[in-house]
Amino acid sequence: MLRRCGVVLAGLAALLSIFFIGVPDARAEYGDVVINNYSDASGMRPVVFPHLFHRIRFRCKVCHADIGFKFQAGGNEINMVKIIDGQFCGACHNGEIAWSVENCNLCHSAKPGTKTQVHESTIQKLAQPAAAAKKK
Ligand code: HEC
Ligand code: HEC
Ligand code: HEC
User: Fold this and answer.
1) Is the pTM of this model over 0.90?
2) CATH of domain 24-127
């Protein structure tokens, strides 16, 4: 009886914590986040972060607590020095957990001029088709 009570309480606590941590907008869970605070200005394509692809592999906590990504598209001041230093995307894109930073185009894949946003579509709609990119 006591043990069952504990299980129920733990379940309740988990549920409550979801409400109290207060995820501001759940749409990002399924969409792609375009990050363009600096990319256009430095002549790189804006970054497309496929959120669903990542969140089916990792828990929210890994990125939003342990690594420290704020819950806001474009709300983290990310640059390449920090990434190479192992922060933000670089916590995983280091050639160990995931492919490393030299694959510029895999992250910098949005059409130039795409604003920072949560885009609720697949990466294909934002990225320039490979064939078209090659022709240029
Ligand atoms: C794992 C993903 C990822 C990879 C790989 C990556 N970048 Fe970035 N990069 C980002 C993110 C995220 C930002 C921040 C984007 C913004 O706010 O515009 C960024 C920003 C930048 C910026 C602007 C800020 C700064 O640091 O000057 C430049 C320039 C840049 N990247 C160049 C590159 C080049 C060149 C490569 C390949 C050698 C590369 N990036 C590979 C994710 C990546
Ligand atoms: C692999 C890392 C990662 C995981 C796992 C992850 N996120 Fe995110 N999340 C991000 C990044 C990166 C952004 C965009 C931050 C930026 O643009 O600077 C983001 C943005 C968001 C946003 C803000 C979008 C907006 O509207 O501005 C919300 C809400 C969010 N995530 C919720 C979640 C939830 C809920 C989970 C778990 C189900 C989760 N995330 C798992 C990395 C992650
Ligand atoms: C918690 C670890 C983690 C973080 C943080 C993370 N990634 Fe990833 N990412 C991965 C893994 C693992 C893969 C799959 C690698 C593979 O397939 O070899 C991946 C794959 C990707 C892909 C390819 C998706 C596809 O369709 O194949 C892109 C693009 C990408 N990441 C961009 C980013 C960007 C941009 C950031 C930072 C804003 C970031 N990632 C942060 C772990 C992470």
Assistant:
1) no
2) 3.90.10.10
